[in-house]
Amino acid sequence: YFTGSLTNLGSIQLDHGVGLLVDLGGGKTLAQVAGSIDVPDDSALQVQNGGLRFDGGELAGFAYLYNTALAIDAASGDAASFIL
């Protein structure tokens, strides 16, 4: 469980069989700027209640977004998959 704003410039790696809940309540933002977020097939990344900026890097796997504004930089192209 993570709460607060986060800017990723490096690597976020979820272990197999693990879920990560990112609660961005209160106007917080998760900014994927560079680097990677790796979510194995048997794991889950849930982002809720704020904003997700995808400006660069890569998301391997899926992110589930609930009550979350999504902004994708045009240069990021097909670097991520989201379930809204």
Describe how the helices and strands are arranged:
Layout: E1 2-3, E2 6-8, E3 11-13, E4 19-23, E5 29-32, E6 36-38, E7 44-54, E8 58-60, E9 62-72, E10 81-83
Which descriptors would you attach to this protein?
mainly beta, 10 strands, three-stranded parallel beta sheet, seven-stranded parallel beta sheet, 84 residues, single chain
If you had to describe this structure to a student in words, what would you say it looks like?
It is a single chain. The chain is an all-beta fold and 84 residues long. It has strands spanning 2-3, 6-8, 11-13, 19-23, 29-32, 36-38, 44-54, 58-60, 62-72, 81-83. It is globular, with a radius of gyration of 12 Å.
Short recap of the structure:
By secondary structure, the protein is mainly beta.
The level of helicity is: under 10%
Question: Averaging pLDDT over every residue, what do you get?
Answer: 92
How many helices does DSSP assign? 0
Note the main sheet.
7 strands, parallel
Strand portion: over 45%
Query: What structural class should be given to the helix and strand makeup?
Result: mainly beta
- Computed Rg: 12 Å
Order of helical and strand elements: EEEEEEEEEE
